[in-house]
Amino acid sequence: MKRSRINEIMRAADEMIRRYGFVLPPFANWSPEEFKARKDASAIVTARCGWDITDYGQGRFDEMGLFLFTLRNGRLADLKRGGGMCYAEKLLISRQDQLSPMHTHVIKAEDIINRGGATLVVELYGSDDQGNFAWDRGGMVRCDGIDTPYGPGTRLKLAPGESVTLMPGDWHAFWGEGGDVLIGEVSTVNDDLTDNIFREPIGRFAEIEEDEAPWHLLVSDYDRWLQ
């Protein structure tokens, strides 16, 4: 993705988030230079909080892509010992007919919440006995507190305010139907480097062409820009 396109997506996302009554935390507004100058930002960097825009390495963001902002993220060590900061929270934007491709998680359980906009479609499949994607299996999810069985290929349609709880092994893809959707994600500790298992061999992060300066850094920029 070109950096100019990423900057454009950031600005549009910030406007949409504000339109629905959310305001991003102060570190969202730091310039790259300010971020590099901060001596107190190590926890943000370590938790990989911040801006995240991906085309899954496919170069077709409008068709397959996702905007994310990680607001807070806990510690895997706390999760392993069973106490402490074991949670994470994100905001996402899924555009109309923009696919977030079929995937699951090994560790993370997550609530996916339609925070505003159009309808969020979540397509579901179950796992086989080894946790692999299974065309012929369904499972059970919780929709706004109600345990709900699903068959292979079930498409949940979530209106604003509605949500689904997905557990490890629930394979899912999602997209906006009828317009763009602001999504909330509340989950156990998030690890985007190792805990996204895609059905197809695709990447989690975009490859960036630096055609202009970044407006804000992406989490995938931290290792390179904040040395």
Automatic annotation (TrEMBL):
Keyword line: Carbohydrate metabolism, Isomerase, Manganese, Metal-binding
Pfam families membership: Lyx_isomer
EC id: 5.3.1.15
Catalytic activity of the protein: D-lyxose = D-xylulose
InterPro entries: D-lyxose_isomer, EcSI_cupin, RmlC-like_jellyroll
Source taxon at top rank: Bacteria
Transmembrane segments: none
Keyword Coiled coil: no
Cofactor: Mn(2+)
MF-aspect GO terms: isomerase activity
Entry similarity comment: Belongs to the D-lyxose ketol-isomerase family.
Protein name listed in UniProt: D-lyxose ketol-isomerase
Record organism: Rhodobacter calidifons
Organism lineage string: Bacteria, Pseudomonadati, Pseudomonadota, Alphaproteobacteria, Rhodobacterales
